[in-house]
Amino acid sequence: xxxxMLFESYKYGGMELKNRLVxxxxxxxxxxxxxxxxxxxxxxxxxxxxxxxxxxxxTEISPKSSGYLxxxxxxxxxxxxxxxxxxxxxxxxxxxxxxxxxxxxxxxHSDFHGGMKPPAPSAIAAIGKTYTNEGWKEFSEPQExxxxxxxxxxxxxxxxxxxxxxxxxxxxxxHGAFGYLPDQFLCSGxxxxxxxxxxxxxxxxxxxxxxxxAIAEVxxxxxxxxxxxxxxxxxxxxxxxxxxxxxxxxxxxxxxxLGHIQLMEADEAAKKLPNYVANVAAHFRKIYKGxxxxxxxxxxxxxxxxxxSGKANLISFARWFLANPDLPERFxxxxxxxxxxxxxxxxxxxxxxxDYPFL
Length: 359
Ligand SMILES: Cc1cc2nc3c(=O)[nH]c(=O)nc-3n(C[C@H](O)[C@H](O)[C@H](O)COP(=O)(O)O)c2cc1C
Fold this sequence. Notes:
By secondary structure, the protein is of the alpha/beta class. It starts with 9 loop residues before the first strand and ends in a 26-residue tail after the last helix. Helices cover 30% and strands 16% of the residues. Bound molecules: flavin mononucleotide (FMN). Flavin mononucleotide is lined by residues 24-27, 57-58, 100, 175, 177, 227, 264, 295-298, 317-320, 345.
């Protein structure tokens, strides 16, 4: 095996990805009107069509899933139609694109819910702030979801996946990482329920499994992915035993013939905690048989190392893809990269969105 392996094609859910580089989901906060993608989103994504697979920014599955201003959705006809144009343009450029489905749960504010508390597994607030119409506000204390609400949210995921298929997407990815709703159910620090969705690891994993089963009713399971962050403490996340919790879930995911699991490597802060998995992909590779995408702080060298050693099948990049529309070509040539500019990550227009230079 050589470093060229990164640039070899890869079979994914009946598709042929042209290389092993994935563009990771990135919120760009430019959907100013009714959750419809920005008019430049088509250009932004087509510029990056040389990725093996693009995963869109986190996209709201329902109005209730919202936790941030200016994020797109996939629950109205107008949103579906707008996304369909983007997908068509990416396909025309020879790219593949999956939609990331997002529910923020407690990482939200009551302003996004008409004054009502945001939904979560338990009434435990996260510490931090979100940007609302009235500026930065502390996350609200959430409302513990009833069983009926849980079923209704699972159904929202299913409808959103159906809508994504209608828009022509090649697949979907469930955002199960970084302390958003599925992660809130999984981890013991945010889930203190006493019903069948809380307590044991089997119970805490139930929500994620039911989402996958519901989505698999409306699309090919081989095009369903899920992003997980077993070693993350951001967004006030904690778990009594992440090795066991994520080990249980990831082992079980073998049964669903999924497109991928995407695993974030540990953040520095999490590495210092007891029980946390330091080398995430290497650890879970032994448990998971399907396509494993590794994410977090990769560079050309680590990407080659991970793929070559078999720790991961695909490597995803967020910030390097944001700043380098032609990242695969730059990596292939082993040449210089544009540096990502933080101040234009979120909000604004063309600047820092569609104006990063190609080689
Ligand atoms: C501007 C920006 C927005 C992001 N938005 C999302 C998102 O919507 N969904 C998601 O799963 N991760 C999101 N992330 C996290 C990235 O997908 C990725 O996990 C993280 O940046 C680590 O990858 P990197 O080191 O290649 O940047 C975002 C990251 C950035 C920089």
